[in-house]
Amino acid sequence: MTCLVSIIESIQQETNTGTICELEMEGQPVSYLKMPRDDLVEKIVQLTDAIIQSIRTESFTAIRVYISQVCKLWLEQGIKLSDIMLIFDLYEKSIKDAMSFYLKDDLVSLNIYRRQVDSLLDRTRVYVSEYFFTLYEEIVYKQFEQLRAVNEIAVYLTSSLDLHEVLDFIVTSAIRLFKADCGSILLLDEHHKLHAPITTGWHDACSSTAISETIIDTTRLMDIEYKDLLSESMKEVFKKESLFRVKVIKLYLHELAIGVLIIGFRSIQNISPVDQKLLETFASHAAIAVHNAQLYGDADFKLQQHIHQVNVILEQNRAIMHCIREGVLAVNADGYINLVNTEAQRLLGHQDDIIGKHIWEVLPNSHLPIVIRTGQPEYDQEQEVGKKVIITNRVPLIVNDAIIGAIATFRDKQDVKVLAEELVGLRSLLESMRAQSHEFVNKLHAISGLIQMKQYDKVVELIALTYKTQQDMVSTIVRRIKDQATAGLIIGKISQSSEQGISLRLNSHSKLFALPQGFSDVSMVTVLGNLITNAMEAVANLPAERRVIHVYLYEGKKYLTIRVGDLGTGIPEPYRKKIYQRGFSTKQGSRGVGLALVLQEVRNCGGTISVQSSEDEGSTFTIKIPVR
After folding, report:
1. 547 and which of 420, 495, 502, 508 could share a cystine (Cβ 3.0–4.6 Å)?
2. Where is the signal peptide (predicted)?
3. Which pLDDT band, with edges at 50, 70 and 90, does 623 fall under?
């Protein structure tokens, strides 16, 4: 490992600058090209430093720390996972080119170190995918938590006459959602002095007052960190409370400041712009609560203002509902739509107002009437909406033990599918890399034995033969299959099948220049990957002469033909009409989703799929995708 660290340290300048050059030559991804060059260079330098540190310590910790830090930033900047993976590809090419030049006179060492770098970068890619997806799930969960908290506050505002109870709930919710350590709401009395009816988590109850007095006559909002403090008295307050940062927001009522909401952090916490808006909403709700309390003295005026505040809250909730990225649709007990947000109308393909229409008129295959009838919720169900597939949750609305309607929340499956299938593709790539690694370990053992026997000529001959065989296979496939994702999948599957004693053969007449429009790399990986995997399972336990799989890809003028055949046991006649059903499988422990996904991808692009199968002779799947 020491030698590899020395090599990477020697070529790190070439690696970093080479990555930038590769990015500019490639012209993709655009999201990175739009970044300030200095920021991009800094990120690549940090990646190289993390790789060097991980190799030096023989631990993945340095890379894990680096990825964990930047993934949150990437997600907030709206950078796609595919863009991140493309940058890793460009970085990998750059470091390998630099290594090839640095070790051009030592091919044996070059191959060894390239494999070590491959393994580390593959592990990094897998960690990026898993951590990125985890962050995405956390954000979705956080959005729902925030919406739930706002709704609960709205309930308090409309149902409780106890101002202390409402303000306490607002402060407690703010501390919980933003992972703060202390918080207060302070109100101005008739003498324009702050007092704290609600305060929690402080070492000294007077600390929040001392901090809040710095903003009451200044700006609407302040974000104060200890390093920015100028006042010695304020530094003393921060030290006494062990504070790292505080957020202070004024409460306004009819443009008049009536108090402040303050939350404090004793550790580093990042507050996003969305979090900032939510905190301002909490402050607005606190101001509304104070306002309501002032109105309770006059019954008639209180009633009018109560209705007004309810409308304000409903408008705020409606605005939040229209801002979230999930579609929301609710129906009454008779199945007529009484609530729908902007995202739901977009996913359903309706620009006009659908409030008041029956759900089956808008979505004929909706299960909401069934949920109303049975009272049973349904979670994470797939549903077709035109050419889209959505993932939907449906729950009944129950008031006083009576079902008054149902609500559905849903999201375009493609949003989750892209991340999930990229992760599946990476795992498939990792499996193939492991297969190749296993194969090369065997060859290394042979080389080691020859070296110990001092058969150096045989060592050179074996290395040359191994290199030539691998290069011939890769060159043949790349020459016929121009789409990189497809070629990479086939190469990986050949290595994986070879390890299992299966011969995967690409038909010599195969050719593919580009995938048809509407049939993406992800679609090809799903279709071809599942067909080859099924074929490998079909021949896995057969005699050697029958462990053969044939793959044929041909891009014609009208259709792209994909054909995968095996010499397996075939598909029994009673099962041939069921094999595309989700959940149906003859394999032990299988979930039966592979062919269902294949059929879905083929149908989405207007293609056809057929199968020819004979028991004890094998099966051949043929897919035709229109070339547009």
Report:
1. 502
2. none
3. very high
